[in-house]
Write a structure and sequence with these properties.
Length: 405
């Protein structure tokens, strides 16, 4: 392999700094041929490209600021949070330069969130305006909010391997080509395989009776927010319909199967440019695991740096009305709760003659056996908050359909 040839190719690409990003993969190739290849300083100089992520919606706008890492670091395709991206002033403005809303950061390195509700004015266009603490000024193109159709339904299908496909269907009443982006939040009720009927208070030595509808670790609620890209289009259909598009698959062996599962799907309508941007991003991630793999020049989006027009910025900001639909899957009613968390298989029952012995070894008391002994199990078998996945808590969502506590 001719390293000099590759270097000249690299140097030529640097005339267009953004087109140099595919060199991430080239450097991987070079490292397989020549030991200790050190990228030239001019190649490393393209590090720190700002990546802006977010959708302007009437409720729940969240904006994330990240930067690309150096080309000679380990995870070349990733983006990371940088200190200079904290405490930025982020505003949503209209075409008349009126500030419509401000996105605030609760803690350093957290996303920026618009807490107040926005009301889109028909015919008005909006943009995202960003000023960072290092005196950089960025702004998106002004975009007119898209009118997102309602979700027709969210359905599920149980497959032979007991995995569950979750699908969404929608259509455009005006029969125009429909481009959609979806995200979702999962919530599920975690139920311990055992109920700890008596809790031991180590400070006082007191035995405290627990009620299954009161103080207990029998019922918990967990949640996860999806971070993947789900895109759909009606281009291949005669009518403007997207039918049974799979957005998620559940696999048995996790606490999602414990009792009752819920998914809340949010749908955003895209214009064609936004759809192509996110399609390129999705293809890059799926094909190579890289944010910037084959054609990053197609991913610049609609962000620009006003303070330095030559600076490359990545991101596509759109404004759209969001529609949502929630689905519940009753795992106990469809007999899938038997394929719950693998933790359950480690629940060994142990009997003691003296009740305090079980507590002394950290076990959870379950019941008194027929022969008058005391039945205990490992602590995690009676503590739903130790399930891990989704950070279970005792806070039940307000919309939850049962009266468990």
């Amino acid at each position: 392999m001719n390293v000099l040839h590759h270097y000249k190719y690299i140097k030529g690409l640097l005339k267009n700094p953004f087109s140099a990003i595919p060199l991430i993969m080239l450097i991987y190739m070079l490292s397989g041929c020549i030991a200790l290849f050190e990228p030239p300083e001019e190649i490393k100089a393209i590090t720190g490209i700002l990546v802006v992520e977010g959708v302007i919606v009437e409720e729940g706008t969240t904006i994330s600021l990240k930067k690309t890492i150096k080309l000679d670091e380990r995870d070349l395709a990733e983006t990371y949070l940088f200190a200079e991206l904290n405490r930025a002033v982020i505003q949503i403005i209209d075409e008349q330069d009126n500030v419509i809303a401000v996105a605030e950061q609760e803690t350093n390195y957290a996303p920026y969130i618009v807490k107040e509700k926005i009301t889109f004015v028909p015919g008005m266009k909006y943009a995202l305006d960003i000023r960072t603490i290092d005196n950089k000024h960025y702004r998106s193109a002004f975009v007119e909010p898209a009118d997102t159709p309602e979700i027709d339904e969210v359905t599920y299908q149980v497959k032979e391997d007991r995995s569950i496909d979750i699908m969404v269907s929608t259509h455009d009443p005006t029969n125009e080509t429909l481009y959609c982006l979806w995200d979702f939040e999962e919530n599920w009720e975690v139920r311990s395989p055992y109920f700890q009927s008596i809790r031991y208070e180590s400070n006082t030595g007191e035995l405290i009776q627990q009620n299954i509808n009161g103080e207990n670790r029998y019922y918990c609620w967990a949640s996860l927010v999806n971070r993947s890209l789900m895109l759909g289009s009606s281009e291949k259909f005669e009518a403007s319909v997207i039918k049974n598009y799979k957005i998620h698959t559940l696999q048995p062996g996790t606490s999602r199967y414990s009792y009752l599962y819920s998914i809340n799907v949010t749908q955003y309508r895209l214009n064609r440019d936004a759809y192509l941007y996110f399609s390129n991003l999705q293809r890059n991630i799926e094909d190579s695991g890289s944010l910037f793999a084959p054609q990053p020049s197609e991913m610049t989006g609609n962000m620009q740096c006003l303070s330095d027009p030559d600076e490359t910025v990545i991101g596509y900001i759109l404004a759209t009305k969001a529609t949502t639909s929630r689905l519940f899957i009753p795992m106990t009613e469809i007999n899938l709760h038997y394929f719950d968390d693998i933790y359950n298989y480690g629940c060994t029952e142990i009997e003691y003659d003296i009740i305090y012995d079980g507590f002394r070894f950290g076990y959870a008391f379950v019941t008194t056996t027929v022969n008058g002994r005391y039945l205990f199990v490992s602590g995690f078998c009676a503590d739903c908050m130790q399930r891990g996945l989704g950070n279970p808590t005792k806070t039940k969502p307000a919309y939850w359909p049962n009266d468990h506590q």
